[in-house]
Amino acid sequence: MSHPTIESILQENRLFHPPADFVAKARINSLEAYNALYERAKADPAAFWGELAQQELEWFQPWDQVLDWQPPNAKWFVNGKINITYNCLDRHLKTWRKNKAALIWEGEPGDSRTLTYAQLHREVCQFANVLKQLGVKKGDRVGIYMPMIPEAAIAMLACARLGAPHSVVFGGFSAEALRDRLIDAQAKLVVTADGGWRKDAIVPLKDQVDKALAHQAVPSVENVLVVQRTQQPVTMVPGRDHWWHDLQKGASADCPAEPMDSEDLLFILYTSGSTGKPKGVVHTTAGYNLYTHITTQWVFDLQDTDVYWCTADVGWITGHSYIVYGPLSNGATTLMYEGAPRASNPGCFWDVIEKYGVTIFYTAPTAIRAFIKMGEHLPRARNLSSLRLLGTVGEPINPEAWMWYYRVIGGERCPIVDTWWQTETGGHMITSLPGAIPMKPGSATKPLPGILADVVDLEGNPVGLNEGGYLVIRHPWPGMMRTVYGDPDRFRRTYWEHIPPRDGQYFYFAGDGARKDEDGYFWVMGRVDDVINVSGHRLGTMEIESALVSHPAVAEAAVVGKPDEIKGEEIVAFVILEGSATPSDALQQELKQHVVNEIGALARPAEIRFTDALPKTRSGKIMRRLLRSLAAGQEVSGDTSTLEDRSVLDKLRQGA
Ligand code: 6R9
């Protein structure tokens, strides 16, 4: 454990109580209230979740059984019929919320739009009819590759209304990465835009879609719908490509929500794991609806007057659960911002908070570290007094960044919810409840009611207090992923067999290391598998290695993370060249660009180091631990006895 962030976390023991006036109005307002809820859920999970499902959601048909658990396969709310868009839209139209702002959108160039629940409902119904017209039926997969504009949320909701699972691909992924995901999902249609604004430049999304689909590479795709956002010229393929506005204009706004089975597929979202091939994480309808709904309510202490802003992109799970589904299911006002802090406007986030009176702000530690670097004067120059609650997600937050966030952005009056969860978990798992659980900077604190989290060794034995181990969950929860799309075996292997089940006890293996302290607080230490977390984005080392090896000059590659002040980690690649290739600066640049082309800019290696050998064990496994130390410029410590050829290490050291 040589990561500097982890060390500083280990020394942290300050305790911050939720501010009294926050507690006075909070939904869950004491440690006792939390404990009571937790114990009730633990004693009878089915009764607990069943009661919430009844209370919080509207159903077309009730379920017969809350949970059918045949490890590792869980079915929640068996035989229930429901539609998440009914819960996100239609039911609010029956109340005063009909004319409440559902979605506030701010574009990077400064344009903006607000959609009330009634307006959003109308747009979603119309677009669902557009999809129908183009032959999309219940069960067909739809690819969504969009900038952060309202149409991204509208497209997701329209798919869900018809029961056509969506597969959103983050707009920063390359054409190759998009193609792989569309092929894996066998998408029938793709929704995109001509382009999107990103740091004063246009991301040419439609061009990327054209590249991904070139030469019939994805034969399942029949149609492409294109939103006009940036107005730059694009090529429209006759018969295949259609302008959103042309079809939306004439579409009927009458489109009842399709009654879906609780376990019908809602969406697929690809995420990185420890092999080269991204995993299609599958989420289904009812459990995901309930879990994102209730966690949004609990964790953000949602009130009807809130203006809630999550800065994630809809291309990630955070955008799915906490920009779109969770907030809308609660009838909240959710804000979506297209832009990012940039040289021409480094204070844009604070402008947005001031302009709309944002009350809840949810962002990532990497962004907070970047804000610190840009300077306190930027937020100080704006009125941020509307804020009442702050949140973080994506990676462990270092206590220094936590303190800055608490002091400068929150004015020492806003609790911070540090939310640990994953694409796979669907929603928050370990986090403080802002009115109930005292905060320790750097700790995600305690598991939510219904979440039996623990830290164990590889045999499943709980480790001692403050001892490092593997973060596991001991009981299914409604928001959990159901399978890996098209690969149930990988689902079982990756999540349920790392720690062998015993006596009927199955352990969901999260892939994170953690420890638990004397107060039962969890301290997540980061990934224990071959996943690197760059700016809160998950990247598999194998994916980047495969991209490098696909370049003709590369024979072999090993990729590791290196600590970085802002990004958390950055990518360092050790590369062995083919016999005929010679190392050069130009080749380094070319290889970096090659990775960008294959995966996307988020995977650009910070460093390429040429070498003629890699440290391997006798069984041929690359010893990444050693490479990590080398990349970080640290002395290689620990056991090197399994190293096959010790001279490799010396050579690598000299090369560094
Ligand atoms: C929601 C999301 C999941 C991985 C997860 C862990 C890291 C996320 C964290 C955190 C410490 C937190 N992670 N939140 N680590 N504290 N509050 O980020 O999903 O992209 O699937 O990443 O991110 O390592 O395993 P995803």
UniProtKB/TrEMBL annotation:
GO terms for cellular component: cytosol. PROSITE patterns: AMP_BINDING. One of its GO terms (biological process) is acetyl-CoA biosynthetic process from acetate. Acetylated. Deacetylation by the SIR2-homolog deacetylase activates the enzyme. Transmembrane segments: none annotated. CDD domains: ACS. InterPro entries: Ac_CoA_lig, ACAS_N, AMP-bd_C, AMP-bd_C_sf, AMP-binding_CS, AMP-dep_synth/lig_dom, ANL_N_sf. Catalyzes the conversion of acetate into acetyl-CoA (AcCoA), an essential intermediate at the junction of anabolic and catabolic pathways. AcsA undergoes a two-step reaction. In the first half reaction, AcsA combines acetate with ATP to form acetyl-adenylate (AcAMP) intermediate. In the second half reaction, it can then transfer the acetyl group from AcAMP to the sulfhydryl group of CoA, forming the product AcCoA. Belongs to the ATP-dependent AMP-binding enzyme family. This is Acetyl-coenzyme A synthetase. The gene is acs.
